[in-house]
Amino acid sequence: MGQALAVGDRIEVLLLKEDREKIRYTADVLADDGAHLVVRAPWAGTQARDFGFVRFEQGDVFTEHFWRDRWYAVKEVRDASGVRKGWYCDVTRPAVQRGGVLEVVDLDLDLWVPADGGAPLRLDEDEFLASGLPEREPDTAARAWQALDDLAELAAGGFADLG
């Protein structure tokens, strides 16, 4: 377990993909019990990004749940007026806090859960397989697949049990 942050603290979130920086942004701490950290941040992209199933754009707000002992992150996405768009879930290695930086290693597998009750979309399974991780680190790959299943189960429960 990590050193718990205080509500109102700011932390830099560093999302890594295969040891390279994917994105870095500052977020406000909403809660932290030492294992489960909840932060809020505006959309960190410089431009809108249309995935086909959702569009992230300036003004969107992400309430993000990271765990220091779980292999995923859950991000609730709302538009500028507060209307929920859905949940973007990343399969990751457990988050590691190094001082004022939270490092999160993305393992490619994702789950999008639309707010309208539509079916969850499992994303990037082809990227995960192509990454070579399943061959290099079979135990990590097994944890990643299990995390994707765990996220689907959380989604089925409406993300009511994130604690």
TrEMBL record:
Entry keyword set: Hydrolase
Coiled coil keyword on record: no
Occurrences of domain DUF402 (ranges): 36-155
A Pfam family annotated for this UniProt entry: DUF402
Superkingdom of origin: Bacteria
InterPro entries: DUF402 (IPR007295), FomD-like_sf (IPR035930), Ntdp-like (IPR050212)
Gene Ontology MF: a single term: hydrolase activity
Protein's UniProt name: DUF402 domain-containing protein
Lineage: Bacteria, Bacillati, Actinomycetota, Actinomycetes, Micromonosporales
